[in-house]
């Protein structure tokens, strides 16, 4: 071929190589989302190594908070119970003055004995030592706004979750329990499930 | 063949190569982006992806053909996972990613028990694409596919050398590292590949427009 033809070939080689290295086309970046997801996953996988001490501290603080709340609530529950029976801790108990109409104290053990096969067994089980459950509920609901999601994972709440019959049931369970306390003080501790029947 | 403008005997390629894919910013800022991505910056990683992915994909297309997208995705999982361990600059990053992509491609071929795709000979490709404007055709989408298809018809070692140098943007030394060869061998392969391409273009009438004669 002529000189002209050869020069054309070389020019076209330049064009060809430029075309081969041309800017990205839309379909070539179709995997961007997947690549970004992989990047995020990889970053998450390495993150705990750096954050572990901080996370441990937070978890510990959560457990402590719950414990303190539970103890406080248990104490409050005890006082409430005592108030309902007319007996405060440290005060001499006045013996047989209780009228039979206020049957709060005696019903608690009775219910577990006389109705062991009620459909609400789970709640009855959890209901017996309820002051601490109430404390857990208070801790749970007060933390609900902040870190609700983490509450489920907190081992301190496992008793509460068991008593409620599942993590999902905790809010309803606690709502019942706490509503009972504030709503009807004569029915005070221990029988959240009664209101359901 | 007579010397062809566009590359010298040392395999130097004087094509506007790096002024091409995704207007690469100044190298210093490219290094900054890389540093940020290594630190976990998402936008920086996205910028890296958009710069490097087309290069890898085009390189992979020659190695594994239609499976290039899958292999590239696989490579990016690897890249994302190991980015924290990478040490080097933006040029080194392209070489590193090309090595990963090539390894994934080799794994893929092994698993498929297949040879790398070979479409035929240079002469099988008659015309890049029927474009009216040849200058524009060189940089538009069809031109890119046609160019890659033409390069893919070279012997594999030449095609790889040309792509690593022209498309991925590696120098001979970095390309040699990816290929596990000596730089001299890569220079020679690139040189031969470019000469074959030029010869093919010489012998083929330009598409769309007849040369003024």
TrEMBL record, chain A:
<feature type="transmembrane region" description="Helical">
    <location>
        <begin position="59"/>
        <end position="84"/>
    </location>
</feature>
<keyword id="KW-0472">Membrane</keyword>
<keyword id="KW-1133">Transmembrane helix</keyword>
<feature type="region of interest" description="Disordered">
    <location>
        <begin position="87"/>
        <end position="136"/>
    </location>
</feature>
<feature type="compositionally biased region" description="Low complexity">
    <location>
        <begin position="99"/>
        <end position="117"/>
    </location>
</feature>
<keyword id="KW-0812">Transmembrane</keyword>
<protein>
    <submittedName>
        <fullName>Uncharacterized protein</fullName>
    </submittedName>
</protein>
Automatic annotation (TrEMBL), chain B:
<feature type="domain" description="RNA polymerase sigma factor 70 region 4 type 2">
    <location>
        <begin position="146"/>
        <end position="197"/>
    </location>
</feature>
<dbReference type="InterPro" id="IPR013324">
    <property type="entry name" value="RNA_pol_sigma_r3/r4-like"/>
</dbReference>
<dbReference type="GO" id="GO:0006352">
    <property type="term" value="P:DNA-templated transcription initiation"/>
</dbReference>
<dbReference type="GO" id="GO:0016987">
    <property type="term" value="F:sigma factor activity"/>
</dbReference>
<keyword id="KW-0805">Transcription regulation</keyword>
<dbReference type="Pfam" id="PF04542">
    <property type="entry name" value="Sigma70_r2"/>
</dbReference>
<feature type="domain" description="RNA polymerase sigma-70 region 2">
    <location>
        <begin position="48"/>
        <end position="115"/>
    </location>
</feature>
<protein>
    <submittedName>
        <fullName>RNA polymerase, sigma subunit, ECF family</fullName>
    </submittedName>
</protein>
<keyword id="KW-0731">Sigma factor</keyword>
<keyword id="KW-0804">Transcription</keyword>
<comment type="similarity">
    <text>Belongs to the sigma-70 factor family. ECF subfamily.</text>
</comment>
<dbReference type="InterPro" id="IPR036388">
    <property type="entry name" value="WH-like_DNA-bd_sf"/>
</dbReference>
<dbReference type="InterPro" id="IPR039425">
    <property type="entry name" value="RNA_pol_sigma-70-like"/>
</dbReference>
<dbReference type="InterPro" id="IPR007627">
    <property type="entry name" value="RNA_pol_sigma70_r2"/>
</dbReference>
<dbReference type="InterPro" id="IPR013249">
    <property type="entry name" value="RNA_pol_sigma70_r4_t2"/>
</dbReference>
<dbReference type="InterPro" id="IPR014284">
    <property type="entry name" value="RNA_pol_sigma-70_dom"/>
</dbReference>
<dbReference type="Pfam" id="PF08281">
    <property type="entry name" value="Sigma70_r4_2"/>
</dbReference>
<dbReference type="InterPro" id="IPR013325">
    <property type="entry name" value="RNA_pol_sigma_r2"/>
</dbReference>
<dbReference type="GO" id="GO:0003677">
    <property type="term" value="F:DNA binding"/>
</dbReference>
């Amino acid at each position: 071929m002529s000189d002209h033809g050869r020069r054309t070939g070389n020019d076209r080689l330049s064009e060809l190589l430029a075309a081969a290295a041309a800017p990205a086309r839309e379909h070539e970046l179709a995997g961007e989302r997947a690549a970004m997801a992989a990047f995020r996953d990889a970053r998450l996988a390495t993150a705990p190594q750096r954050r572990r001490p901080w996370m441990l501290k937070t978890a510990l603080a959560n457990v402590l908070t719950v414990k303190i709340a539970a103890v406080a609530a248990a104490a409050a529950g005890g006082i409430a119970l005592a108030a309902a029976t007319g007996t405060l801790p440290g005060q001499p108990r006045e013996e047989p003055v209780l009228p039979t109409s206020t049957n709060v104290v005696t019903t608690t053990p009775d219910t577990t004995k006389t109705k062991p096969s009620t459909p609400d067994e789970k709640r009855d089980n959890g209901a017996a030592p309820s002051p601490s459950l109430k404390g857990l509920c208070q801790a749970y609901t007060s933390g609900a706004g902040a870190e609700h999601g983490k509450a489920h994972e907190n081992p301190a709440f496992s008793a509460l979750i068991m008593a409620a019959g599942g993590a999902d049931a905790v809010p309803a369970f606690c709502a019942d329990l706490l509503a009972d306390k504030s709503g009807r003080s004569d029915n005070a501790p221990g029988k959240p499930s009664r209101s359901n029947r | 063949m007579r010397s062809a403008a566009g590359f010298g005997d040392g395999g130097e390629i004087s094509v506007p190569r790096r002024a091409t894919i995704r207007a690469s910013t100044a190298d210093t800022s490219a290094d900054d982006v890389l540093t940020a991505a290594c630190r976990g910056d998402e936008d920086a990683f996205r910028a890296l992806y958009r710069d490097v992915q087309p290069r890898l994909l085009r390189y992979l297309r020659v190695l594994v053909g239609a499976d290039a997208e899958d292999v590239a995705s696989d490579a990016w999982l690897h890249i994302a996972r190991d980015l924290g361990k990478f040490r080097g600059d933006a040029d080194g990053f392209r070489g590193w990613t090309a090595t990963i992509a090539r390894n994934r491609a080799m794994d893929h071929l092994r698993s498929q028990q297949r040879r790398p795709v070979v479409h035929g000979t240079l002469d099988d490709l008659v015309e890049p694409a029927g474009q009216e404007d040849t200058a524009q055709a060189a940089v538009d989408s069809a031109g890119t596919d046609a160019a890659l298809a033409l390069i893919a018809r070279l012997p594999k070692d030449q095609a790889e050398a040309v792509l690593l140098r022209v498309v991925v943007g590696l120098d001979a030394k970095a390309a040699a590292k990816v290929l596990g060869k000596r730089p001299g061998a890569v220079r020679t392969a690139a040189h031969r590949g470019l000469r074959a391409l030029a010869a093919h273009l010489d012998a083929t009438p330009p598409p769309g427009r007849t040369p003024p004669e």
